Structures are given as structure tokens and as C-alpha cells.
Amino acid sequence: MQYQAKVLLAFGEAISGNREIRDWLMQNGFPELALTCHAIQLDESARSWLMSNQHPHLMAMVSGAEGNSQAVRWLQKFGFNYLKDVALGADNDDEAIKRLIKAQQREWAGIALKIRSVKNQIERDNNDIHKISRR
User: Fold this and answer.
1) pLDDT tens-place string over residues 24-73
2) Is the pLDDT of residue 86 over 60?
3) pLDDT of residue 125
4) What span, in angstroms and rounded, lies between the C-alpha atoms of 83 and 36?
5) What is the three-class DSSP state of 92?
6) pLDDT band at 129 (very low <50, low <70, confident <90, very high)
7) Tell me, what DSSP letter sits at residue 93?
8) Angle, to 10 degrees, between the axis of helix 19-27 and the axis of helix 31-40?
9) Please, are residues 85 and 96 in contact by the beta-carbon 8 Å criterion?
10) Which is nearest to 39 in space by CA: 71, 70, 79, 74?
11) Which of 82, 89, 134 is nearest to 115 (CA)?
């Protein structure tokens, strides 16, 4: 799985919420990356699309970022080592980020940090909703 650096940078921006760039990815041959952005935001139809369209590795990365250790093991088993570290890094593992940087995979390290930010914000929002509903 190889993408040009500019595509990975665009993917990172799309993860951070840039809809224009996400739409560009969708319309320019990278629907799997655009739909991964939706999957990170808990969109079930995007998650199903990734699995149905030969992108289980991207869905495993999303699941691993959510703390699913089985998904992380699957990524390692099938040789998706960068995606394994992206998932771990997105799940707040700083050592995984360091491994990506050491392997000269700065774009993937950046993507991990962007997923981490989005994932942690979703978690904070969910915790806030639960606090309000308990009052």
C-alpha cells in the first residue's frame, strides 16, 4: 500500500476535517482514504464499504486506533507494519509514533497524530454526553 507524500498529506488534512480535500480524495481515485475519514468518525456505512471493497487493512487501522488489539495483531500478521504503528500511535502510543519517524514515515506519523486528535475528541464528547445524561 503506497501513496505519494502529497496524497498522505491530503489524507491527514481530510482526517482533521477539511471536507474540500476529503471530497477531492473521493473524486480523484482515493475513495478508500475519503471513506476512512468517515470511518474514523464512526460512520458505519463507511466501515462496511471499506470491508466490502478490499480495504480491510484500513478498517483494521481504524479499529486498532480505537483500542482493538485483535485488529492490531491482524495488521502485523499480514505485514501492514506502518498501519499497525499508525493504529497504535492513534491510540496514544508515543513509541509507535517514534517508530514511524525512525522508519522515515513522517507522513504516516502525522496521520496517526491526526487520528489520535479526532479519536480523543470523540471520546471527550461522548464522556461529556454521559455526564450530562446522568444529571
Assistant:
1) 999 999 999 999 999 999 999 999 999 999 999 999 999 999 999 999 99
2) yes
3) 82
4) 13
5) coil
6) low
7) -
8) 140
9) yes
10) 71
11) 89
Instruction: Decide: 13 and 21 in contact? Cβ < 8 Å.
Output: yes
If phi over 0 gives left and psi between -120 and 50 gives alpha, with beta otherwise, what is residue 100? alpha
CA-CA-CA-CA dihedral for 122, 46, 83, 119, to nearest 10: 0
CA distances 126 to 48, 74, 90, 121, 130, Å, are: 23, 28, 18, 9, 6
For the residues of 42-77, what is the DSSP string, one character each? T-HHHHHHHHHTT-HHHHHHHHHHTT-HHHHHHHHH
Mean confidence (pLDDT) of the chain = 94
Helix (H, G, I), strand (E, B) or coil at 14: helix
Higher-confidence position of 113 and 130: 113
In angstroms, rounded to a whole number, what is the distance separating the alpha carbons of residues 119 and 3?
Answer: 23
Q: From CA 120, how far away is CA 21, in angstroms rounded?
A: 22
